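Chapter review: from sequence to fold.
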Amino acid sequence: MANGKTKKNNPRLAISVNWRKMFVFASLILVGLFGVSTISTYRADINRYVPQSGVADLKVDLTIKEDGSVYLDGQKYSERVNILPDSEEIRFPVIDNVGQDYSNIDITVTLPSPIAENTKYDFIGVHGVGSTTTRMVDDSTLVFHAQDVAGTAILTPVVVMPKGTIKPPLPAKIYADTSAVRSNVWVYVGIALPILTFFLMLVYISLQMQSQKVDYPDYETSAPPMAIPPALVGVLFHQRVGSRELAATLIDLAIRGDIFILDRERDFAFVKNKFDRRLLTYEKVLLSKIFKTNLVSDKEEVDRRINNHLYSKKLSLATAGVYILATRLGYFRLNPHRLHLKYLFVGILGFFLGLAGFILSLRIFPDSQYVAFLWLGLMASSLVVMFTSSNIPNRTGLGREALTDWLAFKNYLTKNERMPFSYENQTLFLKYLPYAIVLECEIGWAKRFSEQGFEMPDWFVTDRGGVGLQDFCLALYPIVSYVAKSFAAIREPGYK
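The token string follows.
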């Protein structure tokens, strides 16, 4: 750069997430997790001990294993010993409104080890119980006895064992440890996690922008710094292929004589001309999306080709072609599509892990519902990564120098000085219009010609009379913008 020229940083932000695909994935996972949880609950319910009718006395065996599992009459049950901060407790409603009256019910509880003397126990009987007693048979056995038990009664033996009696498996131990944490801690963690993730991403992006700073020049150049298509300038400027890049490509193809654009009342059409053999691959793919075998493609035909597919492979290939060409020219360290897709994958993976954890924490661990805030925090953090990852700068030194040159050209396009009237200047307006669109200054560029007369270009046909420059822009921009935004919306996930 010449001495005395000031520079300033010009960060570009671009955020893009495909919510339709995410919704499909989320729905499948929700259905799967809900189904699994429902099946588990149903099996647990049918395993509850239901005594046979017509029996006056009932004997039930309840066995507590060393790992904390519980067996009812030899059959494993879903209930487990609760690991508390200072003890280990089982509070189990063995008889729960069974609809059968009994004279006597004996529930024999076998402890995991000879600890009966150090164990606290109680017998809770409600809704129709005459009397209850509890006795210790030996060091490992307790008997809970109830008399005159109605069919609506609930009998719940409570056994509080010394800390360390149970040796739970790792999942149960993790559950016990999380249950011991105060509920408000999980709320704070759930709130702090996405905030911390956003802060870390912001710091990371800021550091990357500082190390890859793009110099915004205070000078201008009156011609494009290099002969490259406007879509490549757009991806260098935005680091993504958006609707502006597609719209600029359509106008550029029209200027080069490959297509005609027809403006009709409440309608438009594209007409195929003799395509230039020097068309780039992504330009050919884009045109093949507009024209199949027909020479004319009107709005109805374009809408049909858009609505026939949830996602378009052709438009994804056209987008990929721009990224590949820009990367081959040395403008990016890594293909922007692959870089953004990597972070998008990490964000989606984290989101669904959080979603699975959230559902399972509510279904399997209902007593520790506040733990769900941890999973909500993970989901929110994943969304932060997905939303912000496309802002990570990826340009090489060559790419940053090239962008600085194009920004100098943008200064020329937006210069606050009217262009003198001449036929050559009108041609210049059309020639540089695609670049002005991708550099987001098409309005400023048109203002420089606001005091001139305007002659309609050959490639734009309209039935309106007396069309000036402003009318031309108001007729052209909605057409190419509509098509470009529609095309951009049906690309495959990750092609942004």
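Two observations follow directly from the output. The chain is about 45% helix and 20% strand. The first helix runs from residue 19 to 46.
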